[in-house]
Amino acid sequence: MTSGDVSPGGAPSDAELLRAHVEGDRDAFGELVRRHRDRLWAVALRTIGDREEAADAVQDALLSAHRNAARFRGDSAVTTWLHRIVVNACLDRIRRRQAHPTVPLPDGSRSDDRPSGVEPAAPVADHETALLVRQALAELPADQRAAIVLVDVQGYPVAEAAEILDVAVGTIKSRCARGRARMALALGDLRSGDAGHAAARNQDATETVPSGPGTAKPRPGEHDRRDQR
Q1: C-alpha 169 chain-centroid distance
Q2: Are both 15 and 67 inside the same structural domain?
Q3: Residue 42: domain span
Q4: In angstroms, rounded to a whole number, what is the distance separating the alpha carbons of residues 193 and 128?
Q5: Does 17 fall in a domain?
Q6: Whole-angstrom Cα distance, residue 115 to residue 155?
Q7: One-letter-per-residue 3-state SS of 48-87
Q8: CB within 8 A of 217, min separation 6: which ones?
């Protein structure tokens, strides 16, 4: 039994719950899901970047785990096994989406979750930064994105992320390094682009906004004409 299967307080461990499920306990798998669904959902959402797709991926993964529990060999923690199935379901959906692209829906709260025109609770600058990071993450290749989500976003040790993705530790390190470099470049470009747009807007405002209440910005030569009157 691995450390990830130990449950404190005398409750059944993850491995015991999975074994009970295989042996016919109808409640065991549901308890296992309740223990880990929040982290499974977080990994799926950040990997796939779309709430509906993430929910479908988690549902597909848990159905697969439910049906194939007897195949679990016990050579890793049950949580590692569950995360591997969820991540693979997400990567499958990402590949299908790339093969048949559609118009992406914005991630986050649905439009009917709050009244129209109400700003999110977070400061605008933080909200914009989160959107930039999310966009940069979404543009990574799927394998790099999965590694970044597990290690940098969810905080899994590199060795556990390697188990979840079923690759070597060195592969995880390489994918994270390449993903971080691509994100740094993308975020730099995005921020530079935003700064350029902001400067253009400020320049336009300087040229068109009146200089004070009830006054208009004088045109070239207008002061001269007034002085001659």
Answers
A1: 22
A2: yes
A3: 11-101
A4: 13
A5: yes
A6: 34
A7: HCCHHHHHHHHHHHHHHHHHCHHHCCCCCCHHHHHHHHHH
A8: 207, 209, 210, 211
Query: 196 and 154: one domain?
Result: yes
pTM confidence score: 0.66
Which has more confidence, 11 or 42? Answer: 42
Structure tokens at 5: 């299967």
Q: Are the C-beta atoms of residues 56 and 93 closer than 8 Å to each other?
A: yes
Q: What total number of domains does the chain contain?
A: 2
Question: Lowest-confidence range among 38-47, 78-87, 132-141, 161-170?
Answer: 132-141
Q: Give pLDDT, residue 25.
A: 96
Residues 16 and 96 in one domain: yes
Residue 106 lies in a domain: no
Give CA–CA dist 163/76, Å, rounded: 8
